[in-house]
Design a protein that fits this description.
By secondary structure, the chain is mainly alpha-helical. The chain is built from five helices and two strands, in the order αααββαα.
């Protein structure tokens, strides 16, 4: 909770006043590019801290992890599902990368990303009588 509030203060007091100059300062571009995955990492690490801090309870003071385990679950089943989830998420990551790379290659001049290419309208025909 406190980290989110501190990040909000950083945005309000440091980044908002520089919103006009930030794109013009070339030295900030690599820093901003490096900062791109930080929200994702913050979400993942926050989730990990919450889940690790919850142990050994599935439901606080009601159901322990040992009581919640499926009795017929084998290590082979867990390994198979882990490999399956990893494969699907890896495939989605590759597709995401390909789509982002395609959008970057198009560049900012093609603002209608994903839209059909615009064909110029035919010139009006002049009828002379």
């Amino acid at each position: 909770m406190l980290i989110g509030e501190l990040l909000q203060l950083v945005v309000v007091f440091l980044l908002l006043p520089t919103v006009y100059w930030l794109p013009r300062w070339r030295w900030t571009h690599p820093i901003l590019i490096i900062m791109t995955p930080l929200p994702f990492l913050a979400a993942v690490f926050g989730w990990m801290a919450r889940e690790i801090g919850r142990q050994p309870w599935m439901i606080w003071e009601r159901l322990t992890v040992a009581d919640a385990m499926s009795p017929g679950l084998t290590s082979g089943m867990v390994t198979t599902s882990l490999i399956g989830f990893t494969g699907v998420l890896g495939l989605l990551a590759v597709v995401d990368y390909v789509l982002i790379a395609r959008a970057v290659r198009r560049g900012p001049e093609d603002l209608a990303l994903g839209a059909w290419p615009r064909t110029p309208a035919p010139a009006p025909v002049r009828l002379e009588v």
